[in-house]
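Lab channel / #folding
Pinned by the channel admin:
"Please post every new chain as: sequence first, then the structure tokens as a reply. Keep commentary short and put observations after the output so the thread stays searchable."

First post following the new format, from NK:
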Amino acid sequence: MRQLLDTVWRRHGTSWIWDEEARNQVCVANEVWSMRQLLRAVGRWPNDLPSNDNQTLVVAGLEGGLDLLNPADAETWLGNAVKDAILSFQSYFEGEAALIFWLPAGKNRIRLNPATDSISWRCAVPHGESLLAFGRVVWGEANEYPQEIVLRRGGETAGLFHLRIT
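Reply from TO:
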């Protein structure tokens, strides 16, 4: 998987970040939306986004939503409600804004398989041994597009970036 040192993820596409420094580069705490706000905004997007000079929407709560559901229901919710919100956001803003999911525990929950570039989500207890096919569900395993966000050369992965989900 390619690494992205550029800041394009702050202004375009969809990202999933777990690094606090990365999150702080695009928003302050009171600008973060909940998953409920995101899902309610589908089809009724605001003209002005709350973060990064009107370029970015940061959303928290994806982890909690996935954790409340059994793995099969979580995968369905991710592939339907969450993906529909992503597609609606992309369409409305015509790729000229960034949708960022803040995943505080994402570093320990996202699994990157370097052999296949597939990405999985490790479920929470009591389903801790289960993995959701995160990449397949959200972006259909278009593995040439997701990139690992790094904030500095040689740094750890701060999140994942996808320019356009189809």
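NK: The chain has one domain: 3-162.
TO: also worth noting, Residues 71-93 form the longest helix (23 residues).
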